[in-house]
Design a protein that fits this description.
The structure holds 2 protein chains of 2 kinds. Chain A is α+β, with helices and mostly antiparallel strands. Chain A has helices at about 1-5, 5-20, 30-35, 45-60, 70-80, 105-125, 155-165, 165-170, 175-180; strands spanning about 80-90, 100-105, 135, 140-145, 150-155. In chain A, strands 1-2-5-4-3 form a 5-stranded mixed β-sheet, with helices on both faces. Chain B is built from 3 helices and 5 strands; from the N terminus they run βαββββαα. Chain B has a 5-stranded mixed β-sheet. Chain B has a single domain, classed as Ribosomal Protein L14 (Beta Barrel). Classes of the chains: A alpha+beta, B alpha+beta.
């Protein structure tokens, strides 16, 4: 199953390895890039930028291209991921630098994308960053991978509608779901430092 | 009466559900209680999964903060906070207003989803 689905990708990976050490790894061959559908909110250019990047990498003489945000978005486009949404978080939120949300067409599509991202990550980063795991393998609608400075969420479109992560991370405090949450108020007999009254249980506070 | 914080979260501790799920926020005459801790020791710390009894139903949950002081330079909360989770790991609620500690990120386990729906970090 893996071999049949990933036949094209295996060939893609093996080709640069079998070639001489001078040929650097390229993200994907230019003809396939030109044919695929372009979508997404990231600022990375189209096939022209990738070809230019490939030329630069060839000149760099077997230096592996870094696993950064442009590479991730290029991979996602290659995978026919729908609605790629890349949100750059400010450094005050010390969570990550880039937050990516991706939709897939089916559960198998999500799993395939996630496993392919992990495979490419392991292929590029050998030494510095710790291992990452795919979270949500038992679920069928939401998977996520956390690489240090980049977090990728693979969801089905219905799940995406329910959680609305883009709204939360772009609007911050002005998110409408947060506003609809009933505001938690301190109980009337709350005095800072003293233990609360025994009659006050969290479930009676609405 | 409420006893002081002895060990973090174990069987029969009353917990506070902090996400905006319907199950966690509708009032009930009994507080949600832990009935099992999925841990080698029966004591749950931040990042452990527990089984809760809410409104007569069993639901899994993830501990995001407890009253007991933990390792140095980790936050200590005034209430035992918990986020409801399905059996497959998806959170039941869609937003979390209370602060969530950063140490969840370094821990081994599936916490990225809970961190994705959280608003404030500590």
């Amino acid at each position: 199953m893996w071999r049949a689905v990933a036949g094209g990708r295996r060939r893609l990976l093996l080709r640069p390895l079998s070639a001489a050490a001078g040929a650097a790894l390229r993200p994907e061959p230019p003809p396939r890039v030109a044919g695929a559908v372009r979508r997404g909110c990231a600022a990375a250019g189209g096939a022209g930028a990738l070809r230019a990047a490939a030329a630069r990498f060839q000149a760099a003489d077997a230096v592996l291209p870094e696993f950064n945000i442009d590479f991730v978005v290029a991979l996602l486009r290659q995978e026919n991921a729908k609605d790629i949404c890349v949100i750059q978080l400010p450094p005050e939120i010390k969570y990550c630098n880039y937050f990516i949300i991706v939709s897939g067409s089916s559960t198998r599509h999500l799993h395939a994308m996630a496993h392919y991202m992990l495979k490419m990550y392991k292929h590029r980063k050998e030494e510095s960053d710790p291992h990452t795991q795919i979270e949500g393998k038992e679920t069928d609608d939401w998977l996520c991978i956390d690489f240090g400075s980049i977090v990728i969420h693979f969801m089905l479109p219905e799940t995406r509608e329910v959680y609305e992560l883009e709204k939360l991370w772009t609007l911050g405090s002005y998110d409408d779901q947060l506003a609809q949450m009933t505001p938690l108020s301190l109980p009337e007999d709350f005095i800072f430092g003293l233990p609360p009254n025994s009659n006050d249980h969290p479930e009676t506070r609405t | 009466s409420i006893t002081g914080a002895c060990r973090a979260i174990q069987k029969l501790t009353r917990v506070r559900v902090v996400d905006n799920s319907a199950l966690g926020n509708t009032p009930y005459h009994r507080p949600p209680k832990c009935i099992h801790v999925y841990n080698k020791t029966g004591v749950g710390k931040v990042g452990d999964k527990i089984l809760l009894a809410i409104k007569g139903e069993k639901k899994k949950a993830l501990i995001v903060g407890h009253k007991m002081p933990g390792p140095t330079m980790t936050p200590r909360f005034d209430s035992n906070n918990v986020v409801l989770i399905e059996d497959n790991g998806n959170p039941v609620g869609t937003r979390i207003k209370t602060p969530i500690p950063y140490i969840l990120r370094q821990k081994e386990g599936e916490f990225s989803k809970v961190l994705a729906i959280a608003r404030n970090f500590v």
